[in-house]
Amino acid sequence: MHSVTAIVVAHDGARWLQETLDAVLRQSRPLDRVAGVDNGSRDGSGRLLTAAFGPNSVLSMSRATGFGEAVHEVVRRLPRAQGQEWLWLLHDDCAPDAHALRALLRAADENPKAAILGPKLRDWLDRRVLLEIGVTVGRSGRRDTGLEPREYDQGQHDGAHGVLDVLSVSTAGMLIRRDVWEELAGLDPLLPMFRDDLDLCWRARVAGHRVLNVTDAVAWHAEAASRRRRRIAVSDDHPRRLDRRNGLLVVMANLPFLALVRSVFRNVAGSLARTVLFLLAKQPANALDELAALGSVIGRPGRLITARRARRKGRKQGYPAVARLLTPPGATWRRLTDMVQRYLAGEGPVDSAGRHHAAGAAAEEEGDELLTDSGLFQRMSSSPAVLLCLLLAGITVAAEWPLLTGGGLLGGGALVPVTGGASDLWRLYVEDHHSAGLGSDTWAPPYVAVLAALSTLFLGKTSLAVSVLLLGCVPLAGLSAYVATRRMISYTPARVWLGATYALLPVATGVVAGGRVGTALILVLIPVYAALATRVVAGSRRAAWGFGLLLAVGTAFAPLVYIVVAILGGLAAVSFGGVRRGVGVSLAIGLGTPLVLLAPWLAGIVREPRRILLESGLADPALADPRLSADAILMLNPGGPGTPPVWVTGGLVAVALGALLLRRHQTVVAVGWAVTLFGVLLAVVVGRLGEWPGVPLAFAATGLLVATALTAHRITEFRAAGGLRRAGALLIVLVAFATPAAAAGLWIAGGAGGPLRGDLTDPVPPLAAVWSPNGERTLLMRPEGGRLAYTILPGRAPLIGEADLRAPDANARRVGAAVAGLASGRGGDDVRTLAAEGVQFVTVPGPVDTELRRALDSEPALVRVNLSETGGLWRVAGTVTVPPTPAGGDAWHRTWLWAQGALVALILVLASPGARTAEQIEDYGDAPEPPRQSRRRSKNPGEQVAA
Amino acid sequence: MKALIENRFGLLTLVLVALGALYGVAFVSRPAPVQEKPAQKVRAAVESVSMVCPDPGGGRLNVVTPPVEQTGQGGQSAQGGGAATVAQMKGGKPLATLDRVGGLWRQDVPLRTRPVTVAGMGTMAAGLEAAQTTRVASGAQRGLSGVRCVEPGAEAWFIGPGPAAADVTLHVANADVAPADVAVMIYAGEGPVLSDRGNGMVIKPGEYREVKLRDLAPSPLVMAVQVTTDGGRVAAAIRASLGEGKGVDWLPVATPPSTRVVVPGLPGSAGQRELYVATPGERDTVVQVKAVLKDGSYALKNKETVEVPAGSTTTLDLTTGVGGQAGALVLTSDEPIVAGMRMTGTGSRQDAAFTAGAAPIDLGSVVADGGPGKKSAKGGGKQESRLVLSAPFGAATVRVRILPQDGAPAAPVEVRLPAARSKEIKLKAPAGAGSGFAVHIVPVPGSGPVYGGRVLSEETGEGVLLTAQPLAQARTWALVPATSEWPGVVLP
Prior knowledge:
- The structure holds two protein chains of two kinds.
- By secondary structure, chain A is an alpha/beta fold.
- Chain A is 51% helix and 12% strand.
- Among the domains of chain A are: 2-237, Spore Coat Polysaccharide Biosynthesis Protein SpsA, Chain A; 386-413 and 461-516 and 621-759, no CATH class; 761-876, no CATH class.
- Chain A has 40 helices and 19 strands.
- In chain A, strands 1, 2, 3, 4, 5, 6, 7, 10, 11 and 12 form a ten-stranded mixed beta sheet that branches. In chain A, strands 16-15-17-19-18 form a five-stranded mixed beta sheet.
- In chain A, helix 7 (239-254) runs antiparallel to helix 8, helix 7 (239-254) crosses helix 10 and helix 29 (650-659) runs antiparallel to helix 33.
- The two termini of chain A are 46 Å apart.
- Chain B contains four helices and 36 strands.
- Chain B has helices spanning 2-6, 10-28, 213-216, 319-322, and strands spanning 42-45, 48-53, 60-64, 82-88, 94-98, 104-108, 116-122, 129-136, 143-148, 155-161, 167-173, 180-188, 191-193, 201-203, 208-212, 222-229, 235-243, 247-251, 258-266, 273-279, 285-293, 296-299, 305-308, 312-317, 327-344, 352-356, 365-372, 383-391, 396-404, 413-417, 421-427, 436-443, 451-459, 464-470, 477-480, 482-485.
- In chain B, the strands form eight sheets. In chain B, strands 19, 20, 21, 22, 23, 24, 25 and 26 form an eight-stranded antiparallel beta sheet that branches.
- Chain B is globular.
- Chains A and B meet through helix 28, helix 30, strand 15, strand 16 and helix 35 of A and helix 2, strand 2, strand 35 and strand 36 of B.
- Strand 16 of chain A pairs parallel with strand 36 of chain B, so a sheet runs across the interface.
């Protein structure tokens, strides 16, 4: 014989309450008694309760009362009844099915030890979606329903006999024996919201009772509080923080001591990790809540001790019964993998499946995509981007065949033979004292870090990274240009033309032949700059951060990039600054980021302004044409090795001049031409200063191409017009495509090589490398045009970037004199001078100059190791010790590196696409709400209670 | 303005004007082509020289450092003092320590003297030169034989008679601190002698060794010898004794294989002349022979060319061509060759002398044994010294200066050499020359390449004793190249 009292607690829940009350009153097993509590509702919930239960059955309590407190109050006033007395706890937003109570009581009959029973909870709106069939908790305090988000209820989780043994059931619809309620002292008032149910059920379990989820009984729950459908008055804290805090508190209060200790460590570490993840996901509010929750549990040990003392009885003995119902330990890892997958799929990095508001993010788009999948191959082969990339890759392979099949090291021009791995580059970047050359304390240039990062991406293989970047510069630039113009140019053939022409610019082929890795990267980046710039001038902050970071990368390789972009950006600020709000700030971010990230290096450049014109790599004057003709500059041809004849770009310039005649797009074309004229002017200046004007000409070409391509859709109009216009359109197309076609043809015919070769050998002979275990140095000499060029290598080939390090002048002069003396064969103590600098080997690449060979052979302190057509190697007699690097680090350098790393990480976070935050799930609500309520909790907590 | 903007061609005109302006700027600012001036090498005094006299026993040892030449060309001279030491190898006692620049040190050394090292430092190093001359009046070793003391090196070439025709001894000495792994390669008349016996000879520091080439290759009548080291350096010299009444002498070091070889120092005395040519390469070659004599340069009749099979040595008798005429030979071929010559004195008992391909003496040359003085050493006959100078490729002027044993150096004498001509100069000991003198020969700047040799001869009743020494580049100056630190040297 059961006697059931339904207790409905309402708090600003009028939106759901009526339906809830109807459901309660229409139970197929009628209720024996009903009681309502109104916790100071302001939306008329109290009236609804009174109307349904009658004024005698409704208690009015203060707004700050918690759910547990309200139930306690009712139970305290509730007179004893006959038979087995049950309490049926109901939220105002929880409507039970008409047969719910009957099913619950039947289960209670069948399982006499069951003290707490709960219905299966489904979603209020989408009535088939499963919310809970019992809840468990991990040792980290993480709520776990064991369900996928948005799982439909098809009975798949239902128990064998309609019941499931669970750790806890929600208070929404919880049926609890009154004697057990009183024995356990009910819901803990310490936990006014969230996890109070878990705590109660845990204690019930420990006391030897069963907690069952009755899957035959169904209730629909809106989870109004945790989804913030309504404001919480019981606490000032954000529900998320409250949820997390209570979760931690419940676990820590109920775990036996040993498990508790483990749990404390686990939670501290876990919380910190989650905080970092939240920060990465740009959810600082979440991160703060996470930390605050942990802090409020750890920081108030008194509360925890009190709670533990209250639960001391039977805690340890009852724990095994609870432990098997806790989330298994492996779940954390499974969740982590899920999280990574979901992040890759574009969702937030921190999952919320265990939260109350689990059924958030929709995933329909993915499903749609799968439905329309027409096969990978078909999709690929019909994409112009892929076709363009394949075509350019084919041209590249045909032109670069000797380079690709050289079988040796890639190098030449501005590129030293590429050796070493990512770790070597990282070491070069972070070390304070370099062993390269004569030893140097110069800070490594920042592009070393970029290359190191790229090499890391390529599994540590620097040569692979450089090869892809440099040799693949043409298809990459084409792809980049094609993709970057996606939002600017809607006419696809124009984008294809733009991509192909851009990729095969004289600058691009010159970059490959000259081994200019830096400019290759910049060539790929320029279209990205253009694409991001359009968003920056639209005021996008995120694009500005990305733009700033990429600009810093480009600037690190060629400072001239910054000059060009800064001037163009300044002009853009003048033109757009007044138009849109926030443009100024965005531009400042974009242009200021490189200045901050590269500050010390740029300071060095300011002291030597000529370095602005130089790019990364060897500054070989032979790579630039000092007498570059005027027509070459105007035709965007930077001269130097690997550049085609001047006329190749004639088609492009002709089409671009023709675009000036279109009146409809005159502004766009004028802007493009302005960029071009500016770039050409800069190229004239750079060229006449004796440097390679590739970078400004690349910008000039970009302006020209974008201006032309933006007007290209007019071609279709001309073609449609028929007659002469149609012939004209055909002619224009022919002229336009003549440029990439001619460039490709000439490139293939002439070959991509030049100074760049793919068959270089390690400049340090293997014997010298083997016999230099302590970094003994090798002097490499090569007579070049009457001069003797030399360099000192640290027992291995030089790394990219080591050429930019400088030795102290005094050392360099002394060693220079000693090298000259050694090469002259005058005897003397030149070898001793060199040996004092740690030089153990002298090598001359073949064919060895006879005089030089004689001079070295005549030196008594040198022992010839070998001499062949590939080169000669001499060893300094006796042992040589490398001068030790000065002890102690460069504190400034260390500090700066840490700061730079932190800045880069921060900018990456700011620039990366943000995660969908939990707040954005709000539009899940059924009805449009007043915007004031849907915002986060207000800044002034007093207002919530008082208002 | 408005009309310009609204006109269809307005923008085009503006852009074209701007492009024209840019073209103008670029055109006007285009720099004139710059002629690359090749970097000049700077002369610097040699600061350290060492050499080994292979077997001076029983002969006279001559060591000299010439006075610094004031050429007005600048150059850095060695600062401070310096000294040259003359010492026997293997811990033998030092013979002398010299510190007088410009004075000849000459001493007769007793028989069974070990090889002697001559090492100069500082001021005494610049141009330090040493030579040994031995005179044996009778017996199987009768003859004048002399050799310039050799600087240790990693490679040395010799050319002359083979072990089947003469008693050929290779002297190798290691005066350095590192062991030398010596290999000997012989190119005989029939081709290269393939033998392992010449390889892997390790000479420890301070060691010396004499190797009978007969043990390595007994059969060659003529041969070219290449002494190389695989690590370390050796001073190598070869002495050939042709047998009783046929003469004896040292083979001078020949220039390494090259496609043009000048064999200088052919004396104007009568006697046999036999040319040796070897090509160590792998292809047969035809060598053009041209003589550069007093009256001009021309190919010898019927002896215009000599065919040399790959990897072998050939002789050509030039007695009827250049016998009795002082001069030099210029040999050219497509393949690198090594060349030398045997000269024989007249008389019932002959003496031989050898010369070999030599380098031009651009920076000057020093002959330590310029000739005997009035107070000639014991047993010395009446020796005559002659200098044969050739300028095969361009007119030249050389300054010849006698450096007597005692007294101040004589004033230099200028000798003009017309292009493609040779000259023979008789060297006379100046007053106060003591027992002998050295010679310092310096081409005047602007001269063509000069080659030469010094010939010592002595008339005896039985026949003329003869020895020759091609002029070698003096180790006075080193050409210090301009250097630049350039990381790009790692690229070819």
